[in-house]
Amino acid sequence: MSGTVADEKRAYEDHNASTTGGLGLPSRFEGAPAGWDPETAQWDSKIEKEIIRRVDWRLIPILAAMYMVALMDRTNMPNALITGMGVELNFIGNRYSIALMIFFIPYILFELPSNIILRKVGAAKWLGGITVAWGLVMIGMGFAKHWWEIAILRTILGFLEAGFFPGSVYLISCWYVRYELQKRLAAFYLLSSLASGFAPLLASGLMHMEGLANYLAWRWIFIIEGILTVLVGVTAFALMIDFPDKVLNSSHRFLTKAEVEIIKFRIEKDRKDSEADSVTLATLREHLADWKLWIYALLLMCVAVPAYAFAFFLAIILKDGMGYSTLMSQVLSTPPYFFAFIVAFATSWYADKTRLRAPFIVLQVVATIVGLIFIVYAVHNNGARYFGAFLGVAGYAGNVPACLAYQSNNIRTNSKRSVGTALQIGFASIGGIIASTAFRQQDSPRYIPGIWVTIGCQFLILVLVAIMSFHFKRENRKQEEEGKVLEGSEGFRYTC
Q1: Which of 6, 48, 197, 463 sits between 20 and 30 A of 156, alpha carbons compared?
Q2: First-to-last C-alpha distance (Å) of the chain
Q3: Distance in angstroms (rounded) separating the CA atoms of residues 243 and 180
Q4: What is the maximal distance between C-alpha atoms in the chain?
Q5: 272, 45 in Cβ contact below 8 A?
Q6: Secondary structure element (H or E) that encloses residue 359, with its range
Q7: Rounded to whole angstroms, how far apart are CA atoms 252 and 162?
Q8: pLDDT at 423 > cutoff 90
Q9: Taking a C-beta distance cutoff of 8 angstroms, is the pair 20, 28 a contact?
């Protein structure tokens, strides 16, 4: 047995000896699939691939379905606005921007507490429960009689949805080794984005319910999508799996004890944090003192600006800026998300294969910038402007999982993952505030100031990635030449 593998096995055995009565590694793998040997285990062995495939099917589809309804519920405001809500509820001046922005205040504040509760309560109960709750809020929005009632309900919506995305990313990152992660995050995010791209088509279909029960069509958008959300949340109670170290204690067991130990052994080999450590005030201060977490957070904030800009304003740009009808503007809002799914998943797969992050982030930033310039300046060519939407959506959609993986690959311990994920996605919510305030109603239909704020955020990404790449390469060189310990783990190297 090689020294490296032997050390890893001894470290794993020592780390878990207190829970095994000192029996160590052999007893933990009793009942493992025939032919699997921890001494010769490979990330891509047939046995491990089969186990991981089962994890994929139990984890990614249900999370993607839940995030799909979250995105639909969060971004259906423009569809409601152009189908009568703006007139009936008197959305004049900056009221629409206020209703959009106010969602993000509780969303930012509750993310870290939610990740802590998630660990204590369990994934199925917590994530399923908040999904049902925000679905009920969505149904309530269909009965609003004043614009400020929409604003209040969106505040409650922000409070409830705050726990879902950071909790999902945290849960996914705890099941996979570092260079399996980006394609899984991409599948989770892009499947949900692709499905939520049907929201305009769903809205166009719900327009035909105009007048039913004396309700305008916009009310049915909220009511029907809210009912769909409740159904998905209830389904999550039955299907959602927990963290690797808790899954055997849950009612949703789908792996044997030996298979769970194989999952944990892989993670221990990869980054030595297979067991959870608690988030305390001391660890919180320690993690927040790491300047790199704030850079990762700024990166996702800048990526979120075009994400929310396209979600909130693409249908409006198509209708008021390019002259399409209400129905066509909703129909044409969908194809860019199909294109983004194909391109962004391909880049995520290749990023995992090459074990690189920064070059792909830069490439997708360039696509976003070019797309935004087409949208704002190709004023006499609707085809070019629409092509810009394809580029812009593909660029930001690829960078969401890329930036999430960039952080997850370069940190260790469960507590730091919990804090870092909440901080990063909290800053993404700030990106939503920036988008909802920079794209002002008085700038419609071209939204030139908002477009340039978004472009400026993309240039900031390029600067931040350059800083991180320089730092990581320097630290990796010190690790290789001087034996410097990175992230508290001997042999750990940063992913550039």
Answers
A1: 197
A2: 30
A3: 17
A4: 75
A5: no
A6: helix 358-377
A7: 24
A8: yes
A9: yes
DSSP letter string over 63-74? HHHHHHHHHHHH
Q: How far apart are CA 495 and CA 482, in angstroms?
A: 18
236 vs 254, residue with greater confidence: 236
CB 449 within 8 A of CB 440: yes
> What phi and psi, each to the nearest 5 degrees, are found at residue 216?
-70, 165
Please return the burial class of 57, using the count of CB atoms within 10 Å of its CB with bins 0-12, 13-18 and 19+.
Answer: exposed
List, in sequence order, the alpha helices (H) in 122-163.
Answer: 123-141, 147-161
Residue 486's DSSP bridge partners are: 489
User: Coil, helix or strand for 486?
Assistant: strand
Tally Cβ neighbours within 10 Å of residue 449: 13
Whole-Å CA distances, 108 to 99, 298, 427: 16, 14, 7
Query: Is pLDDT larger for residue 391 or for residue 250?
Result: 391
The answer to whether 388 touches 373, Cβ cutoff 8 Å, is: yes
Q: How many CA atoms lie within 13 A of 139 on its CB side?
A: 13
The CA R_g of the chain, rounded to the nearest whole Å, is 23
Q: Judge whether 444 and 320 are in contact, CB under 8 Å.
A: yes
Instruction: Tell me what the mean pLDDT of segment 30-48 comes to.
Output: 67
- Return the structure tokens found at 158: 């922000």
Amino acid symbol at 338: F
CB atoms within 10 A of CB 467: 12
Query: Quick one: tokens of 429?
Result: 């919510």
Tokens 């950071």 identify what position?
A: 166
Question: Residues 190, 341: contact at Cβ < 8 Å?
Answer: yes
Query: CA–CA separation, 423 vs 294, rounded Å?
Result: 8
pTM attached to this predicted model: 0.85
